[in-house]
């Protein structure tokens, strides 16, 4: 299967379809994009189902492929993704206003993600970005249930939960 992303006038991905290999060729063959345009209208760009963060993965084992020349357009596109025509890549929607896109097409928070995912009791912590307060907040997972009565705040200076 080859996958194609339909783009709007701002290069935002509207949808992704798959087309049989008997109809189109692999690796950015413009004939496949032309086929989609003629059949369905609009602007189409091929996207690689097996490419994530610039790495191509073997579809049978999901380990990095031996041949990284197969990596294509940086990410498999999804609705809401953006196609950057200058760099010929797809990247995910911005998760929060404060996050910035790095040179690897990954959104980075203004405060580094927690490096510790357990609390002092050894419980795993489910954590999320708090955009209003510009910080990571977490709750322990006790007996496979998130405990909302306890909220930790990540301290990047000490690499610990307070």
How many strand segments? 14
Number of helices: 1
Mean pLDDT level? 93
Task: Report the sheet with the most strands, covering strand number, pairing sense and barrel closure.
Answer: 5 strands, antiparallel
Number of domains: 2
* Category by helix and strand content: mainly beta
Q: Give the end-to-end Cα distance, rounded to a whole number of Å.
A: 49 Å
Shape by Cα distribution: elongated
Over the alpha carbons, how many angstroms does the gyration radius reach?
20 Å
In the predicted model, the low-confidence regions spanning at least 5 consecutive residues are: none
The arrangement of helices and strands along the chain is EEHEEEEEEEEEEEE
Helix content: under 10%
Strand content: 25-35%
Reconstruct the topology from this structure.
Elements: E1 2-7, E2 13-19, H1 30-40, E3 43-47, E4 51-52, E5 55-56, E6 82-84, E7 89-91, E8 100-101, E9 107-108, E10 124-130, E11 135-142, E12 145-146, E13 152-155, E14 160-161
Antiparallel strand pairs: 1-2, 1-3, 4-5, 6-7, 8-9, 10-11, 11-12, 11-13, 13-14
């Amino acid at each position: 299967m080859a996958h194609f992303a339909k783009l709007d006038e701002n290069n935002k991905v509207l949808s992704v379809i798959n087309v049989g290999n008997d109809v189109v060729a692999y690796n950015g063959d413009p004939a496949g994009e032309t086929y989609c345009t003629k059949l369905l209208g609009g602007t189409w760009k091929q996207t690689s189902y097996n490419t994530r963060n610039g790495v191509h993965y073997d579809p049978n084992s999901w380990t990095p492929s031996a041949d990284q020349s197969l990596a294509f357009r940086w990410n498999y596109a999804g609705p809401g993704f953006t196609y950057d025509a200058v760099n010929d890549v797809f990247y995910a929607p911005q998760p929060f206003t404060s996050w910035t896109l790095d040179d690897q097409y990954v959104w980075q928070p203004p405060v580094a993600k927690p490096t510790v995912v357990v609390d002092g009791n050894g419980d795993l912590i489910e954590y999320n970005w708090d955009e209003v307060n510009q910080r990571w907040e977490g709750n322990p997972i006790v007996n496979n249930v998130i405990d909302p009565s306890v909220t930790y705040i990540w301290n990047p200076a000490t690499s610990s939960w307070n």
